[in-house]
Design brief:
70% of the residues lie in helices and 0% in strands. With 281 residues, it is an all-alpha fold. Among the domains are: 67 residues, Tetratricopeptide repeat domain (Serine Threonine Protein Phosphatase 5, Tetratricopeptide repeat); 68 residues. This is GlcNAc transferase.
Length: 281
């Protein structure tokens, strides 16, 4: 399928003078390190630093949401739920946190709980078309006996790296049962199963889904397409997709993280395409 410890002691030191007499660069805050880890897809360190940031800055309740996101990406669903619910308790009329709780239970395969949270979000924002769509998908899923279990079974196969079996299960869910929210997982598994042509088609569907309902995922679409073409040996096309991913990050975050995964992939592709840039040249 296609994750820097922070020293509290250093934070307490007085800034030292550099050779030119200027103050040396101060250590990054936990929030800054958490954000940087998040932006490069390093969810383990993101969760670690967001936990520290929440403890250090309890008034920054928005950090609970970021902590929940990181824990969710790590598969720590109980921890993610705890963080999300704490924020929701402090901000009961916030629409997005209800949507995020819906996404969390959707990821877990619990469509009934997902439907409950999406419906609560819709009550707060009745004209939001994206939420209406999530409600309809969750309602459709929760009304079908065994569908929740089928989603859980498919994800278990993914976690066990049983690509062919997982692919068949995901095809039935996405194509047969309309669980289009699982299109990214289906595309990744198809790539891992070695069917690159079909994976390319599915990533196109993933892009369509992200464009319509989850624009923040467009960065991931391009990263995954970059990985696909890199595996196939097409470094020029891979490079183009990694650059698109970088552009999406800049559009979303307002800056480009030089330590992000796509920055590393860009340099690797350049080295493959232009051998004069490689270390052995």
């Amino acid at each position: 399928m296609i994750r820097l410890p922070f020293s509290g002691q250093a934070a307490r030191r007085q800034p030292k003078l550099a050779d030119n007499g200027t103050a040396a660069e101060m250590p990054q805050t936990a929030v800054a390190q958490a954000d940087a880890a998040r932006n490069r897809g390093d969810w383990q360190n993101a969760a670690t630093f967001y936990r520290r940031a929440v403890a250090d800055s309890p008034a920054r309740t928005d950090l609970l949401v970021q902590l929940g996101h990181a824990e969710k990406e790590l598969g720590n669903y109980d921890r993610a739920e705890t963080a999300y619910r704490k924020y929701q308790g402090l901000h009961p009329r916030n629409v997005d946190i209800h949507v995020q709780l819906g996404h969390l239970f959707n990821r877990k395969g619990d469509m009934k709980a997902a439907f409950t949270w999406y419906e609560k979000a819709l009550q707060l924002a009745p004209d939001d078309r994206e939420i209406v769509r999530h409600v309809n998908i969750a309602r459709n899923g929760s009304s079908r006996p065994g569908l929740d279990q089928s989603r859980r079974d498919a994800m278990r196969l993914v976690e066990e790296n049983k690509w062919s079996q997982a692919r068949a299960a995901l095809r039935e869910l996405v194509v047969g049962n309309g669980q289009i929210d699982m299109i990214a997982v289906y595309a990744n598994v198809t790539k891992e199963d070695g069917d690159f042509d079909e994976a390319l088609t599915l990533y196109g569907q993933y892009r369509d889904y992200a464009s319509s309902f989850n624009p923040d995922s467009l960065e991931d679409v391009e990263i995954q397409l970059g990985h696909l073409h890199k595996i196939a040996g097409d470094y020029r096309t891979a490079l183009a997709h990694y650059i698109k991913a970088r552009n999406h990050q800049f559009k979303r975050a307002g800056y480009v993280d030089p330590s992000s995964s796509h920055e590393h992939e860009i340099q690797a592709c350049i080295s493959e395409i232009y051998t004069c840039f490689s270390a052995g040249a």
